[in-house]
Design brief:
Oligomer: heterodimer
Shape of chain A: globular
Helix content of chain A: under 10%
Radius of gyration of chain A: 13 Å
Order of helices and strands of chain B: EEEEEEEEEEE
Number of strands of chain B: 11
Number of helices of chain A: 0
Largest interface: A-B, 24 and 27 residues
Chain lengths: ~110, ~120
């Protein structure tokens, strides 16, 4: 069965600094991978997804993620953090007919 | 095109009552998924339905929980005889096709159930 591990339940970065949120997955087949963002008291919004093709995936709000098969990783990055990026971020993998989510990383932006 | 709609957004029930959560998928989407989110945890899959069929209910508790997606109308997640441990946010998602073929899910805003 597929699983997702997000390293760090809380990450703090200064405004303008690099954002790096880590995600490792386990999958016995080529995975479909996602990053979602959740703002307080809201649903999940898709940031980006990897299905096939280019391993560097660009998403909304300046985020991108790189699929590294050799490392079974799909880390999320953004060059320069903005206060509006403060939210919870979920990495996820498709398992047949459903999505398996990591436990989430709450991103804090320091002024 | 309206997004996934869920109602009510907030629901308070006393222990032993029934909770009914509704989800209207996006137009043209025939696949519906329900997830539960407990505090400080990620979303846990509960059930996957297509019109009039339950495809995968491997994440549903064996007792008190049921789901349906009738030919007409919204999908319903029903919790009978609620207990305090049922307090959580319940999210619905829809997609136009199966996830294994690369379709993505679109999430609703969730229903926050509080059991007193």
């Amino acid at each position: 069965a597929q699983s997702v591990t997000q390293l760090g339940s809380h990450v703090s970065v200064s405004e303008g600094a690099l954002v790096l949120l880590r995600c490792n997955y386990s999958s016995s087949v080529p995975p479909y991978l996602f990053w979602y963002v959740q703002y307080p008291n809201q649903g999940l919004q898709l940031l980006l997804k990897y299905t096939t093709g280019a391993t560097l995936v660009k998403g909304i709000n300046g985020f991108e993620a790189e699929f590294k098969k050799s490392e079974t990783s799909f880390h999320l990055t953004k060059p320069s953090a903005h206060m509006s990026d403060a939210a919870e971020y979920f990495c996820a993998v498709v398992q047949i007919d459903k999505i398996i989510f990591g436990k989430g990383t709450r991103l804090h932006i320091l002024p | 095109n309206a997004g996934v709609m869920q109602n009510p957004r907030h629901l308070v029930r006393r222990r032993g009552q029934e909770a009914r959560l509704r989800c209207s998928p996006m137009k043209g989407h025939s696949h519906v998924y329900w997830y539960r989110q407990l505090p400080e945890e990620g979303l846990k899959f509960m059930v996957y339905l297509q019109k009039e069929n339950i495809i995968d209910e491997s994440g549903m508790p064996k007792e008190r929980f049921s789901a349906e997606f009738p030919k007409e109308g919204p999908s319903i997640l029903r919790i009978q005889q609620v207990v305090r441990g049922d307090s959580a946010a319940y999210f619905c998602a829809s997609s136009p096709g199966g996830l294994a073929t690369g379709y993505e899910q679109y999430f609703g805003p969730g229903t926050r159930l509080t059991v007193t």
